[in-house]
Write a structure and sequence with these properties.
Blueprint: E1 18-23, E2 28-30, E3 53-57, E4 64-69, E5 74-83, E6 90-91, E7 97-98, E8 102-110
Parallel strand pairs: 1-8
Antiparallel strand pairs: 1-2, 3-4, 5-8, 6-7
């Protein structure tokens, strides 16, 4: 009996595993609680909407399509996805380090 081909889920193969927020005014770093909400899913009802920072990732899961803060106390000035070479680094072909961990860095300014 022939087995059916395995099904695959379309979409990004990777998304940032780590998220940090840098408040440029107060010069502090925060590690927020992250909720991944995918298309057609409701937002978490137990999180106040004025604490949301909405980040729309590109189809590759590694580029930023759009970013927007719903808080009047924090406005985003920059957002980027980068690799985290210090995390999960392994020697790949040719002795080069390879890494699949990504970090989302959100920079912004808070109200005084």
């Amino acid at each position: 009996m022939q087995q059916p081909p395995p099904t695959t889920i379309s979409g990004p193969s990777t998304v940032p595993q780590f998220v940090v927020i840098h408040d440029q005014l107060q010069q502090c770093w925060k590690h927020p609680v992250v909720h991944y909400v995918f298309e057609d899913e409701p937002f978490p009802s137990n999180v106040p909407k004025d604490s949301y920072v909405l980040v729309n990732l590109g189809e590759d899961g590694e580029s930023i399509a759009d970013v927007h803060s719903l808080s009047h106390k924090f406005q985003v000035t920059n957002c980027k996805v980068s690799s985290t070479p210090q995390m999960n680094a392994t020697a790949g072909p040719g002795g080069k380090e390879s890494n699949t961990s990504l970090m989302l860095t959100i920079e912004g300014m808070s109200a005084k």
